[in-house]
Design brief:
Subcellular location: Membrane
CATH superfamily of the domain at 18-159: Type II secretion system, protein E, N-terminal domain
Structural class: alpha/beta
Shape: elongated
Distance between the termini: 35 Å
Largest sheet: 8 strands, mixed
Transmembrane segments: 198-223, 497-520, 540-561, 568-590
Radius of gyration: 27 Å
Strand content: 5-15%
Number of helices: 22
Strand order of the largest sheet: 6-5-4-7-10-9-11-8
InterPro entries: Glyco_trans_2-like (IPR001173), Glycosyltr_2/OpgH_subfam (IPR050321), Nucleotide-diphossugar_trans (IPR029044), T2SS_E_N_sf (IPR037257)
GO molecular function: glycosyltransferase activity
CATH class of the domain at 18-159: Alpha Beta
CATH architecture of the domain at 18-159: 2-Layer Sandwich
Main location: membrane
């Protein structure tokens, strides 16, 4: 008998329990079985997965025993491969969804391999189309075999998962390009022929943007919802009495060897049954440094490393789309390389999903920084996150506005994610875009008080590059969804349509206008703006600025108070200097929106002083036997 297969059972299965079979074969002992059965009472997971994750049992040994139990032949794909010639492009969806693939042809019979052979046999019988047979394989081995056999097709699938009409890859609409050219041409002509009128219009427009931004922040503060004790009680009850779901955590990495120790320690610290955590760490094929770093750390059994096939664009959302096909959870979460989620975060999220209404498709956790006190830039970054996640987003929720998701610590019902078409692989802020897609589908995003800490960019150059990607993504999302504004209005309704434009467009416009406003302020010392015909506009801008700045400062202070970081409140007054970096990032974003809309400016993590200390701590705390 070949090394890659076992003899076909000559009986119709083994009626013993899987644990008893493994015990009889000497794969486990009675203590391991007893401990796994105790764990099963809490998680209600399959005993085989518990034995693998908690008992260190080989996955292939468990899969082979399960095959004998069900009466199927077992194929070990570690020593074999799929016949790629048997895989038709139109069948890939079926094979991924059903965890099945054609292995080879023997005596005119197509032998399929499947992770759940009984279900696959029924599906093939329903499908028809010739003589077939089914054998069992281990699920992860099947995933790797499918990736090896269908790499280019899977790469294309992950790149174009989102329909053209809802993806940035279609570019701007003709009317958008025409409007942009007309606006720039008109502004230039007006500046030459009527500079007084051009100045007045600029100042009035700036005042309008200030009013829009300040009004949104002010409304968010006023609408900030109070905590609902009944909702928290329901969440606790749900956590106690409902079975816990399988949660898939997708963690895309690219050139992140420095973050590997801290990442694995953070994931291992999650207080959730590991057999119900399906963690996919996604790497690019050319990233051998991160792969070697992860392998050296010996990831726990519930962490699987997936290597994305080569393809374009090389972006985080493309990696997420690729991994989604191999995730098994009913809920999908996303983490970044440097994340330190609260240990109870997954339990809280699972309980909240149970307590929320069915139209709540997504839950966004709060984000903060573990290196907030590293320097002035990181302090301002933490202040900004406090105002956004503890003031603005709860306010948007209270106002019924669409929620632009954060890039990490978001959790979404799998069905809703697939209905939305996954992530737009061409959009460099796939998170904000996904939030708008959910809103267009009539679904809601709720907020969690659980906190995930990240590493703040501590160097101006890195900060500007990162922020330019975020702002470019906001503009990309606006361009994508506003290609058909009437359709967007119908999907969102007038109120949320206004919110969509305020959230995505006015924030970027505020940054773009900032240096010109400063220039106008400096010019005002030498030029009489009233004599230039801009007196009323100047007054309006001064009044709006005087009103908006206190609102922004109040939002920052409120956010710091909400997350108990009032030790940073003294730095709030320095935010205008911090916004200057945002202005530089906005112009870089605008340039790249035209020249390289899907270019991903990678943020390097693990380079700061505090991150280095945490990495050393993570390495020193590992069991030497691991």
């Amino acid at each position: 008998m070949a090394k890659d297969r076992e003899a076909r059972p000559n009986y119709h299965g083994d009626h013993r329990r899987l644990g008893e079979i493994l015990l009889a074969e000497g794969v486990i002992d009675r203590d391991a079985l007893a401990l796994s059965l105790i764990a099963q009472r809490d998680s209600r997971a399959r005993i085989g997965e518990i034995l693998v994750v908690r008992g260190g049992v080989d996955r292939s040994a468990v899969a082979a025993a399960a095959a004998r139990q069900a009466g199927f032949e077992f194929i070990d794909l570690r020593f074999s491969s799929l016949d790629a010639a048997l895989i038709r492009p139109e069948d890939i969806d079926l094979f991924i969804r059903e965890r099945i693939a054609p292995w080879r042809i023997e005596a005119g019979v197509v032998i399929y391999v499947a992770a759940t052979p009984d279900a696959a046999a029924a599906r093939l019988a329903q499908r028809g189309g010739g003589s077939t047979d089914v054998a069992a394989v281990e699920a992860r081995a099947l995933s790797r075999a499918l990736i090896d056999a269908c790499g280019p097709r899977l790469a294309e699938r992950s790149a174009v998962r989102r329909p053209d009409a809802r993806s940035l890859r279609s570019g701007a609409a003709g009317w958008q390009r025409g409007a942009a050219v007309a606006a720039l041409t008109g502004a230039a002509a007006l500046a030459v022929t009527r500079p007084d009128l051009a100045l007045a219009l600029f100042l009035w427009s700036s005042a309008g943007v200030m009013i829009a931004n300040g009004g949104l922040w002010g409304a968010a503060l006023l609408a900030h919802p109070r905590a609902r004790p009944q909702a928290r009680k329901q969440t606790r009850e749900s956590a106690d009495f409902r079975p816990l779901p399988v949660v898939s955590l997708l963690v895309p990495l690219y050139h992140e060897p420095e973050t590997a120790p801290l990442l694995l320690r953070s994931l291992s610290a999650l207080d959730y049954p590991p057999e119900l955590l399906d963690i996919k760490v996604i790497l690019e094929r050319d990233d051998s440094a991160t792969l070697d770093a992860l392998k050296a750390l010996n990831p726990p059994p519930h962490v699987e490393i997936l290597i994305a096939p080569d393809g374009a664009p090389r972006t985080k959302p493309r990696a997420l789309n690729f991994a989604l096909d191999f995730a098994r959870g009913a809920f999908i979460g996303v983490y970044d390389a440097e994340d330190r989620p609260a240990p109870d975060q997954i339990r809280k999220i699972a309980a909240q999903f149970t307590a929320e209404a069915p139209d709540v498709a997504c839950i966004q956790a709060r984000l903060g920084y573990y290196n907030a006190t590293e320097n002035w830039l990181t302090r301002c970054f933490e202040i900004e996150y406090a105002s956004w996640f503890d003031a603005m987003l709860p306010g948007l929720f209270g106002l019924g506005m669409p929620i632009p998701l954060g890039g990490t610590s978001l959790f979404i019902r799998r069905e809703a994610l697939e209905t939305a078409g996954g992530w737009d692989s061409h959009n460099v802020t796939e998170d904000a875009d996904l939030g708008m897609m959910l809103a267009r589908a009539g679904l809601k995003t709720a907020l969690s008080d659980s906190l995930t800490e990240e590493e703040a960019s501590s160097r101006p150059g890195a900060w500007i590059r990162q922020r330019s990607r975020w702002l470019k993504g906001y503009l990309s999302t606006w361009v994508t969804h506003m290609r058909r504004p009437v359709e967007l209005l119908a999907d969102l309704g007038a109120w949320r349509f206004i919110g969509f434009n305020l959230i995505l467009l006015c924030a970027v416009l505020g940054y773009l206008l900032l240096p010109w406003l400063w220039l106008a302020s400096l010019a005002g010392f030498w030029v009489n703006l009233r004599a230039a015909g801009a007196g009323a506009a100047t007054d309006a801008l001064v009044i709006t600025t005087s009103a908006v700045l206190p609102i922004m400062f109040a939002a920052a202070a409120f956010g710091l108070w909400r997350r108990d970081r009032l030790n940073l409140v003294g730095w709030v007054l320095t935010l205008p200097l911090y916004w200057a970096f945002g202005a530089a990032a906005a112009y870089l974003a605008l340039w790249e929106l035209v020249s390289a809309p899907s270019k991903w400016r990678k943020t390097r993590h693990g380079v700061g002083r505090i991150a280095a200390e945490l990495r050393r701590s993570a390495l020193s705390s590992r069991d030497p036997g691991e």
